[in-house]
Design brief:
heterodimer; A: 307 residues; mainly beta; 23-stranded mixed sheet; elongated; B: 189 residues; mainly alpha; 0% strand
């Protein structure tokens, strides 16, 4: 993933000297049937909002120190760029021309915005990459990967079949992730985390979590994290296996339960408790028990260890 | 005007409607906040005490999702609604057999979201549709497994919690797909 990003950046930067034409353009009138380089720029407030949508290809959104938005890249055959900016709000949209839609054509766009901008991006068959943007991110992709560096602001990211790759900055934030069939890779995040997956696996290597809620249907969850002293850590799984590592055996009330899966937590084993079903439970308290760890599973295995 | 002509006239009117009517605001953060607030009221140990709260949480989520869904799709979904709602009710009440374990708000929300979901699905490419459908079946299968287990052990708090979680997961999934599909060109992605 990372090498691919760098190659894409190199490709875009190689284009810059050739197509450094700023200003408003109506690309629709410049030959509908050829690949075209695009270049736009406009003033943008440091706390402005960027809305992006793209069909097919890749969108790289990068924060910088200038109060300006700049859009550069290349459109595929039959694609059109709509760009508007009024200082506070900018919109960049790549879409198909009427009667044209070729799944082999791609638009690769590099957007530079003030690093404290709020970014909302939605793509279809297009990947999203966000870096050096420190404020709120809302990223959605259908059949596209999402890669983002996140900071101390709220993040809401979802894909249907793409892969999520999130890298935090060890700053507390509120993060909501939703994947369907793609996998999620998350690291160096702190604060609150809500993650949902259906069949994709979730892999998390976090710092200190305060509120955590993870729901999986059949995807596995692998997690390593520490918990705040008053944390709530809750995981529900139907058939996905849960392999969790909570560093330092947090002082908490532990409630682990599975209908038919095995439970092992800090070398303790779940015990059958119900005369009507095979449900096994494991409940215990460590230290003052200021935090709560609740993990439920129907048939997935629950494994809880120290780091 | 016979029924077919009426349907065609309705089709024509529906075709003129805007495909997307964005909700006035995103309701999920509010749902999430309410769920968290309620969670904080509950004592950490003692599953039986929280059972009633779980039902209320799911009910609240279901109602809010239904409202969100209705706001967006109320007008454009009437034509298919009848048959789809029957299918949704059949699934929930008979195949799933979970109606006795879930609040009425869930059933209604599922009906409404199912209609919106089908409208959204048509906008996606065949490959994406397959992914979405496969995963929806996965969720439904998990609901069925939990429901079957719950039928054998109705008082099992773990199963109740899992059913609520899986049901909420399903509603969120339907809503998420709907939201994502709003941005897909009508020819598909």
């Amino acid at each position: 993933m990372i090498p691919r990003n760098y190659s894409f950046c190199a490709f875009l930067f190689a284009l810059l000297p050739l197509h450094a034409v700023a200003g408003k353009h109506d690309y629709e009138d410049e030959g509908d049937y050829e690949e075209r380089s695009v270049s736009e720029s406009a003033p943008m407030a440091a706390n402005g909002t960027l809305d992006v949508s793209n069909v097919a290809g890749e969108v790289l959104i990068s924060g910088w120190d200038r109060n300006e938005i700049e859009v550069k890249g290349e459109l595929g055959y039959g694609q059109k760029l709509d760009f508007s900016a009024d200082g506070d709000h900018a919109r960049v949209e790549v879409r198909w021309e009427r009667d044209h839609e070729d799944e082999d054509e791609e638009a690769n766009i590099l957007i530079s915005v003030p690093k404290t901008s709020r970014v909302r991006a939605t793509t279809v068959s297009a990947s999203i990459i966000v870096r050096d943007v420190t404020e709120e991110l809302q990223l959605r992709s259908v059949s596209g990967d999402v890669t983002a560096h996140v900071y101390a602001a709220d993040v809401n990211i979802g894909t249907i079949s793409g892969t999520l790759q999130i890298t935090g900055n060890k700053q507390a934030a509120e993060m909501m992730l939703s994947v369907v069939s793609g996998d999620a890779w998350v690291r160096d995040i702190d604060g609150d985390l809500t993650a949902r997956t259906v069949s994709g696996d979730i892999n998390i290597r976090a710092g200190k979590l305060r509120r955590t809620r993870i729901d999986t249907t059949s995807g596995d969850v692998l997690l390593r994290a520490s918990l705040e002293s008053d944390a709530r850590f809750e995981v529900d799984s139907t058939s996905g296996d849960l392999r969790l590592e909570l560093c330092g055996k947090p002082e908490a009330e532990y409630e682990l339960s599975s209908f038919s899966g095995d439970i092992v937590a800090f070398d303790r084993h779940g015990e059958a408790r119900n005369e009507y079903g095979p449900t096994s439970d494991l409940r215990f308290k460590l230290g003052t028990g200021g935090a709560l760890v609740r993990i439920d599973s129907l048939s997935g295995e629950i494994s809880l260890d120290d780091c | 005007m016979n029924e077919r002509e009426m349907n065609e006239a309705l089709d024509a009117r529906l075709a003129k409607l805007a495909r997307d009517i964005p909700p006035g605001r995103d309701l999920w953060p509010q749902i999430s906040a309410r769920l968290r607030d309620d969670d904080q009221i509950v004592a950490p140990i003692g599953r039986n005490r929280v059972r009633g709260v779980w039902w209320w949480q799911l009910g609240a989520a279901a109602v809010l999702v239904a409202l969100s869904s209705l706001t967006t799709y109320g007008l454009m979904s009437r034509q298919k609604a009848a048959s789809e709602r029957v299918a949704a009710v059949e699934f929930v009440q008979h195949e799933l057999g979970a109606a006795s374990f879930l609040p009425a708000g869930y059933v209604q929300a599922r009906q409404e979201l199912s209609v919106a979901f089908d409208e959204s699905l048509a906008r996606l490419s065949p490959e994406t549709q397959q992914v979405v459908e496969t995963n929806l079946r996965d969720i439904e299968r998990s609901l069925k497994q939990i429901s079957d287990a719950l039928a054998r052990d109705p008082g099992n708090a773990t199963l109740q919690q899992l059913l609520v979680a899986a049901s909420t997961q399903e509603l969120r999934y339907l809503d998420e797909v709907r939201r994502l599909a709003l941005n897909v060109p009508s020819k598909g992605a």
